């Protein structure tokens, strides 16, 4: 929290990396225990809860005009995830900030279409290009569902959200107003709600489905911290440049498939130190997205320990 104080020098560099724990640890006490085991083994600086309660496929939504069939999910839909949130808040809040992963309405719309032969990610893009006015109906319903989850998490005591967004990638809507008119407004509703309710929210600009050549649509998004890839078109930003662009603390710096997955401990240490030498004044070490599930947890501990012990000049 001290890092968010613009008048306070940041001597200690926090760090956090995320993985999915697999279906055996997606719910119940097994999920709670696995999150805590990972958090304590890696010594990361906040307890981030994975979201494993994705919207299910809705086979009756096949065309843009079908989005009026989108179900409205209430608290009972999120019950398994909320039990994990409740358990981790109780177990971990005294040790660190507890941050819940949150998928944007656009991403949830893609999950809803994952039954499509082309895959949900491609299909939601096509639907918006073909008839955005019809898709808007579904986006409104999804946003209402997501807000129900947010409010329940806030009641349980989370300190913030890791708010994931997509839709602005280069391959989707470049040259049109579709992102600004049919994706961003629902992101804004979600993020304004979490910003009203919590003090530590991370805006995650997800590049899982594709890269970006323009991040300007996200510059006015809420969120006390920003996490994104450093690849911007053909350019490679430094962490310092990314922090300056968003005028807030930047989280990231490491490629999720780079030195962090090396079998050589010294390569991990050297890679982290190179990132920290070019970090912004307000900075959290991390990756641009989720790490491979089979990564050696000791690598993550090494990266985080290197950040904690780094001496700024």
Strand fraction equals: 5-15%
- Assign the CATH class: Alpha Beta
Total count of domains: 1
Sheet of most strands: 7 strands, parallel
Tally of helical segments:
11
Question: What fold name goes in the CATH topology slot?
Answer: TIM Barrel
Mean pLDDT: 96
Query: Can you write the helix and strand succession as a string?
Result: HEHEHHHEHHHEEEEHEHEH
Report how far apart the termini are: 22 Å
By helix and strand content, what is the structural category?
A: alpha/beta
Q: Measured on Cα atoms, how large is the radius of gyration?
A: 19 Å
What best-fitting shape do the alpha-carbon axes yield? globular
Task: Write a structural description.
This protein is of the alpha/beta class and 313 residues long. It has one domain (2-309): Alpha-Beta Barrel (TIM Barrel), CATH 3.20.20.210. Helix content is 42%, strand content 12%. The strands form two sheets. It has a seven-stranded parallel β-sheet. Strand 6 and strand 7 form a beta hairpin. Helix 5 (132-156) runs parallel beside helix 8.
What are the SSEs and their pairings?
Layout: H1 28-42, E1 46-49, H2 79-92, E2 97-103, H3 105-112, H4 120-130, H5 132-156, E3 160-165, H6 170-173, H7 178-182, H8 184-197, E4 202-205, E5 225-228, E6 231-232, E7 235-236, H9 239-246, E8 250-254, H10 265-277, E9 283-287, H11 297-309
Parallel strand pairs: 1-2, 2-3, 3-4, 4-5, 5-8, 8-9
Antiparallel strand pairs: 6-7
Helix pairs in contact: 1-2, 2-5, 3-4, 3-5, 4-5, 5-8, 10-11
